[in-house]
Protein: Holliday junction branch migration complex subunit RuvA
Amino acid sequence: MIGKITGRIDYRSTDHVLVDVRGVGYIVFVSERTMAGLPGTGEICALFTDLVVREDLMQLYGFPTLAEKEWHRLLTSVQGVGAKASLAILGTLGVDGVSRAIALGDWNSVKAAKGIGPKIAQRVVLDLKDKAPSVMAMGGTVAQALGDAEAEVIEAPTAPVPPQNPSAQAEALSALGNLGYGPGDAAGAVAQAAGEDPSAETPALIRAALKLLAPKG
Structure:
């Protein structure tokens, strides 16, 4: 299985790129958001990948971070959500947006993705709500990742990817867990706090989440 590729972009389409890895061209499907963050034709890119194999089909899907790849894996585990629908959701909301929407039960945000109806959006939220904390705690871009035994790589500098700093959310989730809050409640509070102040560091996130979790009245 191909878990990561690094190579030169030979061709860009609306929904996929052709990446040359040591003379072998890989067609990699990506979301609109990921496509916008990739370098131009002729430049080096690096993507985590998920390989879909069926009787009449083999397709690679690419992601700039492990967290996005994991969300793709979870989204496609939901009945009625295929790879293209998953990319639509991730392209519309991004990793942070998906995390917040699912942690907060906001299926209307999920429904905003192209081709996603209300029933599928509600199913996504219900099926994945308890799994949101573990993905929110993930991080790391291709450039930060250590070697992958399943990866096809070349020795070349990787292109920059959009900055991600999930450490504060992960640390806040851990702290709230140590205080006895359930994963679902903690994830929802951290997601809401992070949405209100995306640049907040761990202490500020914990304080804001605790305020949200405090009994009302």
User: Anything to note?
Assistant: The chain has three domains: 4-63, 66-136, 167-212. The domain at 167-212 is CATH 1.10.8 (Helicase, Ruva Protein; domain 3).
